[in-house]
Design goal:
Blueprint lengths: L1 H22 L5 H21 L8 H27 L2 H4 L6 H12 L6 H17 L1 H4 L6 H8 L1 H25 L3 H23 L11 H21 L5 H8 L2 H11 L6 H20 L2
Helix pairs in contact: 1-11, 1-12, 1-13, 2-3, 2-10, 2-11, 3-9, 3-10, 5-9, 6-14, 12-14, 13-14
Pfam families: EamA
Protein name: EamA domain-containing protein
Keywords: Membrane, Transmembrane, Transmembrane helix
Length: about 290
């Protein structure tokens, strides 16, 4: 049952990315990020109100204080990445988060990867190479990596993956000091609050521009809320690494949506690359 829930979550994530990418065609990225987070907050309010109010322990306030600005920056960069690159190229970069966790965990927690984790890293790196394999036919064997680094959206999404590897630890603190759904609601709410002055500062058209893409932005918020609910339900049935690994199937769905809906090219290489990166995530989660 939890696998079905997380496959639904993965599909919702890919569809959310599609709607966000469509939104930035008529709305500035910072306003898109604000509207998407506001919509998610509103949709999450419904299931949270159905739960009893959790006891908030002291660690909750520290975690929410740190999460607000960090998530505001991360999600803004996320939307900027979708604006700057093909969906089928940018979205798979998020599978690099476990790779960064294997780098940051030894520094923060003193945990080191075992051989399966090393193989998982190799799959993620190899998958990122395959994403741009067509470039290798035109020049140096290293051209796929160079092309990836020249792509602004891919670079930004790699930065997002790294920031998520840091914020994952903050999420753990927040979840332990409140109920899961209440934490997620508060995290998105505080993130929206932090994004509000960012819109005033960075936007030339203000908040009213979101009326240009109301359906897409509302859909993005709804799909994120559904993802959060599915993930929280799945976590009651399976451990975190398994749940997050299946969620990363969103990379494969994103490549397919980029090809089917946005008519993006090089679908074979990008689908193979995304699939290989997901295999790497599974190896790290299940065996690493």
């Amino acid at each position: 049952m939890w696998i079905v829930l997380m496959l639904v979550a993965a599909l919702c994530q890919a569809l959310k990315d599609l709607y966000l990418k469509r939104s930035v065609k008529g709305v500035e990225p910072v306003a898109v990020t604000w509207a998407y987070c506001l919509g998610t907050t509103l949709f999450l309010t419904v299931p949270v109100l159905a739960e009893p109010m959790p006891t908030l322990r002291p660690g909750f306030w520290t975690a929410i204080g740190v999460m607000g600005p960090l998530a505001a920056l991360t999600l803004y960069l996320y939307v900027k990445a979708l604006e700057s690159s093909d969906l089928s190229l940018a979205a798979p970069m998020l599978t690099a988060t476990p790779l960064f966790l294997l780098i940051t965990s030894p520094l923060i927690l003193g945990e080191f990867p075992d051989p399966a984790g090393i193989v998982g890293i190799a799959c993620i790196v190899g998958g990122s190479y395959v994403l741009n394999l067509a470039k290798a036919r035109r020049g140096s064997p290293l051209e796929p990596f160079r092309a990836l680094m020249r792509d602004k959206g891919a670079r930004l999404m790699l930065l997002v993956a790294f920031l998520w590897s840091v914020s994952a630890n903050i999420d753990k603190v927040g979840l332990r000091n409140a109920s899961p759904m209440f934490w997620i609601l508060c995290a998105f709410g505080v993130t929206t609050a932090w994004l509000t002055p960012m819109v005033w500062r960075l936007s030339s058209r203000g908040f009213g521009q979101v009326r240009a893409r109301p359906a897409e932005l509302a859909a993005a918020g709804f799909l994120e809320a559904v993802t959060c609910w599915c993930q929280m339900q799945a976590l009651t049935m399976a451990i975190v690494p398994y749940v997050i690994s299946v969620k990363r199937m969103s990379a494969v769905f994103a490549v397919l949506l980029g090809w089917l809906v946005l008519r993006e090219g090089n679908v074979r290489e990008r689908l193979a690359g995304a699939a290989l990166m997901v295999v790497g995530v599974f190896l790290i989660a299940f065996l690493g």
